[in-house]
């Protein structure tokens, strides 16, 4: 028996796993049967004790003996019972495997099927009961019931109502829906104090107001982080500017505005709304690079020759004036029309971005472009249409210049943020080399699908890019891209630079989106000090590790909240198509069934092995197939199956298909 400390992971069936602290990528999680997780919840820091012997599958198992630190206290839930002053609610996250018994201390107006936010009172010991019963097959069934006690913190609205569902998703991932009053007050104060364009401030900045400048963003964007400028120089070269909103001019350290921005770390983008990192008076107003208005910015400006070679570069605080606000689609129409007399600067930006794109691809940058879906909602928020979002060239145009700005600022910080021979901490966006075992698993997977992928021990990003090029146009393209992405390390924020494997960059950071990402704001502050040849305080440098770790964690939560809102709308979209027939693509093979993807919404459902027909089906993990022992029929990734939609479960966000 051994004791270990780590993070608890729970699956949908209540089984736990311990992810050990300081574990290596090769170490497997320790299994914790559902009757030994005690009152621990997902992501809690716990101590476990392993059992003397492995289970019948050879897994090391253990039990939770101590809960060291609770990961969170607030959970969204649905009221299922009100009786004799007792309120019972079921958590939205079914991995919690519990119920809440709660008090209405603030006298909220409640009823059955109200969506609420529950604050668990951990000073009240949760009730855990374990019952063992012998079933009709002679096996022992173990039932675990867990009750947590708490109070209602917020009422979102009626279950199934769009706002209530979206707000409960945001809150469940730990993001407040609105900003604190003191944060809003600080934002308004910042506008009053720093919002005016003054001669004194302009004198300290690079004045780019006479240079043609534009923004290119989604059609429904409200905050404009970045702008591009272009002009021809007298020496025959050109000047391209990448201008980023100077959020650091408004958000200063040491007040509620900065504290909340650091805590949120990211804006959250749901299907139908944005939960901004900064109050709207800044995010959509004075920080945003709105057209036809002077705005303070932070700029990287490049002189290039006609071949795209960078001759000179400078980084500076600036003042700009955007002449035109393009949507991606509008800018693409201008380029497609081919009339260079209309916005000639846009055509030049497009030409230079293609040079950058080609250079980056030749260096081995990985293109993980996957399908993204968008919903058309009715006035009640119900999805009436879903479509795949097209990636057009203007998306790439903007991306290439943002990558260039991020790369250059990272290099500047790496080479200038020094003290003697000592490299000082910065904020870098790093992407480590992939784990060798995961790459081996990926090679087995894609080779079983007929692709040629035999990477050496020292893998290069070019190897991954060549693999992705092979799968273009295949029925299994999306599946292969997803599997490849999952085999990669996660890009994170770090204070020491190790490069970015996926992009093939030796130096990389995030500089271009300070309205919606806190690490970018940190980069602006660091650059300001370095450009002014001032020392960064030791206190601030010491805080960067914690900021990077927290921001990386918040980034995952924001992405999970976005996926949760998308999944809810996918299931909701199919909820009025019950009985319809579809031709779905096999997207996954597991021990218990086949995952299939509906082509319009890209929603994924599970066909259990018992639902595939009256036969015994055998799973072959090496070839990612299931095979019928009777008929010999096989099902593998990328196959098309005709199915009927039997039903959906909006609570569990699951889809039930039947094979035809």
Assign the structural class, choosing from mainly alpha, mainly beta, alpha/beta, alpha+beta, or little secondary structure: alpha+beta
- Tally of alpha and pi helices: 13
- Low-pLDDT stretches: none
Q: How many strands in all?
A: 34
Biggest sheet, spatial arrangement of strands: 12-19-18-15-14-13-20
Largest sheet: 7 strands, mixed
Quick description:
By secondary structure, the chain is α+β, with helices and mostly antiparallel strands.
Keywords:
single chain, seven-stranded mixed β-sheet, OB fold (Dihydrolipoamide Acetyltransferase, E2P), 4 domains, 28% helix, 13 helices, five-stranded antiparallel β-sheet, 660 residues, alpha+beta
Describe the structure.
The mean pLDDT is 92. Helix 2 packs across helix 4 (256-264), helix 8 (393-416) packs across helix 12 (518-531) and helix 9 packs antiparallel against helix 11 (477-487). Helices cover 28% and strands 31% of the residues. It folds into 4 domains: 3-69, Beta Barrel (OB fold (Dihydrolipoamide Acetyltransferase, E2P)); 74-159, OB fold (Dihydrolipoamide Acetyltransferase, E2P) (Beta Barrel), CATH 2.40.50; 181-429 and 507-565, no CATH class; 581-659, Nucleic acid-binding proteins (OB fold (Dihydrolipoamide Acetyltransferase, E2P)). It is an alpha+beta fold. It contains 13 helices and 34 strands.
What are the SSEs and their pairings?
Elements: E1 3-10, E2 16-20, E3 30-32, E4 45-50, E5 62-69, E6 74-83, E7 86-91, E8 99-103, E9 114-120, E10 127-134, E11 140-158, H1 162-172, H2 181-194, H3 199-203, E12 206-207, E13 213-217, E14 226-232, E15 238-245, H4 256-264, E16 268-269, E17 274-275, H5 280-286, E18 294-304, E19 310-321, E20 324-327, H6 328-337, H7 344-362, E21 373-377, E22 383-388, H8 393-416, E23 418-419, E24 422-423, E25 428-430, H9 436-448, H10 461-470, H11 477-487, E26 492-494, H12 518-531, H13 538-574, E27 581-590, E28 593-597, E29 604-608, E30 617-620, E31 625-628, E32 634-636, E33 640-649, E34 654-659
Parallel strand pairs: 8-11, 12-19, 13-20
Antiparallel strand pairs: 1-2, 1-4, 2-3, 4-5, 6-7, 6-9, 7-8, 9-11, 10-11, 13-14, 14-15, 15-18, 16-17, 18-19, 21-22, 23-24, 25-26, 27-28, 27-33, 28-29, 30-31, 31-32, 33-34
Helix pairs in contact: 1-13, 2-4, 7-8, 8-12, 9-11
């Amino acid at each position: 028996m051994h004791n270990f400390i780590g993070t608890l992971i729970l699956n949908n069936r209540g089984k736990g796993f311990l992810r050990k602290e300081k574990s290596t990528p090769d170490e497997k999680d320790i299994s914790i049967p559902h009757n030994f997780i005690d009152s621990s919840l997902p992501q809690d820091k716990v101590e476990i004790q392993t059992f003397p012997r492995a289970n019948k599958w050879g897994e090391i198992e253990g039990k939770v003996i101590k809960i060291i630190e609770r990961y969170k206290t607030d959970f969204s839930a649905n009221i299922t019972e009100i009786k004799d002053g007792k309120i019972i609610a079921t958590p939205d996250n079914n991995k919690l495997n519990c119920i809440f018994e709660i008090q209405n201390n603030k006298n909220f107006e409640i009823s059955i099927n109200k969506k609420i936010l529950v604050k668990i009172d951990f000073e009240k010991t949760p009730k855990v009961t374990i019952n063992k019963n012998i079933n009709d097959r002679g096996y022992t069934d173990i039932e675990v019931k867990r009750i947590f006690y708490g109070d209602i913190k917020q009422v979102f609205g009626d279950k199934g109502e769009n706002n209530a569902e979206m707000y409960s998703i945001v809150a469940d991932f730990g993001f407040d829906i609105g900003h604190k009053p003191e944060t809003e007050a600080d934002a308004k104060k910042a506008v009053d104090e720093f919002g005016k364009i003054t001669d004194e401030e302009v004198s300290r900045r690079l004045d780019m107001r006479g240079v043609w400048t534009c923004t290119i963003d989604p059609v429904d964007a409200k905050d404009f982080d970045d702008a591009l400028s272009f002009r021809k120089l007298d020496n025959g070269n050109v000047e391209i500017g990448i201008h980023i909103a100077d959020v650091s001019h408004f958000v200063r350290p040491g007040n509620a505005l900065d504290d909340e921005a650091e805590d949120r770390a990211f804006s959250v983008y749901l299907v139908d709304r944005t939960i901004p990192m900064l109050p709207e008076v800044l995010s959509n107003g004075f920080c945003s690079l709105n057209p036809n208005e002077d705005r303070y910015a932070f700029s990287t400006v490049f002189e290039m020759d006609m071949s795209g070679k960078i001759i000179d570069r400078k980084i500076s605080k600036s003042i700009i004036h955007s002449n035109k606000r393009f949507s991606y689609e509008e800018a693409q129409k201008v380029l497609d029309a081919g009339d260079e007399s209309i916005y000639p600067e846009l055509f030049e930006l497009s030409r230079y971005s293609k040079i950058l794109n080609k250079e980056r691809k030749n260096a081995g940058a990985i293109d993980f472009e996957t399908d993204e879906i968008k919903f058309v909602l009715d006035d009640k928020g119900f999805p009436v249409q879903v479509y795949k979002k097209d990636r057009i060239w203007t998306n790439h145009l903007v991306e290439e210049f943002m990558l260039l700005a991020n790369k250059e600022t990272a290099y500047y910080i790496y080479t200038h943020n020094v003290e003697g021979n000592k490299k000082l901490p910065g904020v870098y966006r790093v992407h480590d080399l992939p784990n060798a075992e995961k790459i081996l698993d990926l090679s087995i997977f894609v080779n079983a699908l007929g692709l040629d992928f035999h990477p050496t021990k020292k893998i290069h990003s070019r190897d991954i890019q060549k693999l992705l090029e092979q799968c273009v146009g295949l029925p299994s393209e999306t599946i292969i891209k997803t599997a490849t992405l999952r085999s990669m390390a996660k890009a994170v924020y770090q204070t020491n630079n190790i490069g970015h494997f996926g992009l093939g960059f030796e130096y990389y950071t995030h500089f271009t989106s300070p309205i919606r990402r806190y690490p970018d704001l940190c980069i602006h502050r660091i650059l300001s000090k370095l450009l002014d040849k001032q020392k960064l305080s030791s206190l601030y440098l010491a805080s960067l590790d914690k900021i990077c770790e927290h921001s990386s964690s918040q980034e995952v939560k924001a992405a999970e909240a976005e996926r949760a809102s998308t999944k809810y709308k996918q299931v909701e979209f199919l909820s009025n198509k019950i009985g319809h027939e579809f031709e779905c693509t096999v997207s996954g093979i597991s021990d218990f069934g086949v995952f299939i993807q509906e082509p319009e919404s890209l929603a994924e459902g599970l066909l259990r092995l018992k639902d595939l027909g009256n036969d015994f089906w055998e799973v072959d993990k090496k070839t990612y197939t299931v095979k019928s022992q009777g008929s010999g029929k096989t099902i593998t990734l990328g196959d098309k199956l005709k199915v009927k939609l039997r039903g959906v479960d909006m609570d569990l966000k699951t889809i039930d298909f039947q094979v035809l």
